[in-house]
Amino acid sequence: MKQFLITAAGVFAGLLIFMIGVPFVLIGMAVSATAPAPIPTHTILELDLRAPLTDQAPQNPLWGLGRNSTSVMSIITTLRRAEKDDRVQGVLVRLPEGGIEPGMADEIRLAFSHFRAAGKPIYAHSQGIYPSGFVTATYMLGASADQFWMQPGASLQVTGIASEDLFFKRLFDKYGVSPQYEQRYEYKNAVNGYLYSDYTPAHKESALSWMGSIYQSNLGAAAADRKSDPTALRAKLEAGPYVAEDALKLKLIDKVGQVREAEQALLDQAGDGAQAVDFDDYADSHRERARPTGDTIAVIEAEGPILTGEDHGSNPFTGGASIYSDNLSEAILRAAKASSVKAIVLRLNSPGGSDTASEQILDAIRVAKAKKKPVVVSMSTYGASGGYWISSEASGIVAQPTTLTGSIGVYGGKFAVGPALARFGVDVREAGVGGEYAGAFGMGQPFTAGQRAAFAGWMDRIYGNFITRVAAGRKLPEARVREIAKGRVWTGAQAKDIGLVDKIGGFYQAVDLAKEMAGLQGDIPLRRMTPSEGAFEAIQKALGVSATSARTLAAAAWVFGDPRAQGVLDRLGEARLREQGHAAVLAPMPIR
Predict the structure, then answer these.
(1) Is the pLDDT score of 33 beyond 60?
(2) Sequence-ordered strand ranges (E) for 494-539
(3) Predicted confidence band at 67 (pLDDT cuts at 50, 70, 90)?
(4) Quick check: bond before 419 cis, omega within 30?
(5) In the chain, what percentage of residues exceed pLDDT 90?
(6) What is the rounded CA–CA span in Å between residue 140 and residue 144?
(7) Is the predicted pLDDT of residue 137 greater than 70, yes or no?
(8) CA-based torsion, 327, 332, 336, 339: positive or negative
């Protein structure tokens, strides 16, 4: 009876969620399926970077229904379309008040530069830049515009880059918590906060190195765009903070005015009758087209921590991202098998994750290369640790100057909390059979000497495997890889100098490299082959029912007289046919 009641309650909860949630989903699908408003013949686009920014659009169709998610990839591909569109006369950019991840900012700056080279202006407007995160990257984006505006009285606080780390050792010592971790090696500092009460020399060296490289890169790019001396620009910024009026006098910005004034100035430049259009609305006005015939370059996107298995989804109404080894390796293998695909560009933004998951994905890359299909990795803000493991044997690696990459190393361990719990009357006891190592990761006590030695040996083997793959993929002596590894994080600019990266640039530079490696000539379209799921599969994850049941229940809504459902189902049926017969194209214009 108890199990029956639990099952009945689960069924009732699922039906309740379905009856409440699905109508909203279907309405959202209907909205997204309606024809977008026409774009005026004289248009300026308004791009708002103040919202949280991801590198890639969420793969979940239920997240942001009817809208283009604010992602770097959607921004740069939409700008490529816009620069060819005679209706688009310029772009107004709203800058965030805090920092932007440096690799993302570099990618957007390249897109701005390409757009301006087409003879179309970009105005940037800021309501203030405050010391939070990588503010030099935000200033760099403002400096890359034709005109950099700030609101009257707004604050410009771009005096450098700083970060803080928490160290828990004294707290753990006080309460009897024993962190039991192995690191390979001294620069692999992700767990240093558990082991020490201050920076180790290696930790401090690494942090100051990559921060200094990013700082120099951001200020160098800003100085180049503003046609000023880098040393002079740095001195001015570091002497801040400033209000907008003082920043204008120092020629750190171009104009002081409200955002409406910046918008009107750009509209006036665009010509009579010009209108402002939201960037996402313009992006939504371009429907995906059918898969082209002839040669293509596959684009596969991957963002987030690297995990084993496949994406079963926890909440399809959120936009979180992870890289699942089954899904990503399957996408690479599918591209490798497609006869029309002549090269693959893997867009990667990952700080790392499981070594076994990374190895599975790397194996798929090996298969693609064996089929004579070059695989070029395009790194965004991160391509580190497991992200570099994935990339190590690619045909080519392209990174931004501020990409955080390398981190060739490994760490692992546990917390022994038995003594701490004993102070509160909680005793941890262990029973087990088998070898001594069977209980190695129990939380009650620290490793025994034998367990610690076995664990350390296992970590050594993982680290050795990592070194071997990097040496083979980068064609470097193992001794050299061991010298530059040790868990150290490098920026893309630094990694290029030591042989871990082939080229400095962004996504379209990676496309050019893939095209060159594949021996392709002329205009080659991109074919997006990122792992994704359909809307009904997403509903399945939300409600715990099969995708077939989701379709059946949605159809039942129509049978029971909901006129909205019929139109939605018709549109979904058409979309399903398109999905089965065609693959999406990332951009409807040739990539040059």
Answers:
(1) no
(2) 503-504, 526-528
(3) very low
(4) no
(5) 75
(6) 6
(7) yes
(8) positive
Rounded to whole angstroms, how far apart are CA atoms 361 and 325?
6
**Where is average pLDDT lowest: 17-31, 148-162, 235-249?**
17-31
Select from 69, 64, 58, 28 the least CA-distant residue to 572. Answer: 28
Residues present in the chain in total: 592
Tokens of 577: 């046919």
**Two structure tokens written together for 15:** 């039906």
Q: What tokens were used for 108?
A: 């957007």
User: Taking the CA atoms of the chain, what radius of gyration do you get in angstroms?
Assistant: 26
Q: What's the start-to-end Cα distance of the chain, in Å?
A: 67
Residue 328 and residue 361 in contact, taking contact as beta carbons nearer than 8 Å: yes
Q: Do residues 87 and 39 lie in contact, with contact meaning Cβ atoms separated by under 8 Å?
A: yes
**Are β-strands 275-278 and 503-504 bridged in parallel, bridged antiparallel, or unpaired?**
unpaired
369 Cβ neighbours under 8 A, 6+ residues apart: 375, 393, 395
Can you spell out the DSSP letters for 344-391? EEEEEEE--B-HHHHHHHHHHHHHHHHTT--EEEEEEEEEETHHHHHH
Domain boundaries along the sequence of the chain: 2-33+534-581, 43-159+240-284
pLDDT at 26: 47
- Positive or negative: CA dihedral 17, 20, 26, 31: negative
pTM for the complete prediction? Answer: 0.85
Helix%, strand%, coil% for the chain, nearest 5: 45, 15, 35
Q: In Å, what is the CA distance from 165 to each residue of 162, 194, 213, 568?
A: 10, 11, 19, 50
Backbone dihedral angles phi then psi of residue 244, each to the nearest 5 degrees: -55, -40
CATH architecture of residue range(s) 43-159+240-284: Alpha-Beta Complex (3.90)
Quick count: other Cβ atoms within 10 Å of Cβ 22? 18
Return d(Cα 192, Cα 501) in angstroms, integer: 27
Over residues 415-464, the pLDDT tens digits come to 999 999 999 999 999 999 999 999 999 999 999 999 999 999 999 999 99
* Beta partners for residue 147, in sequence order: 123
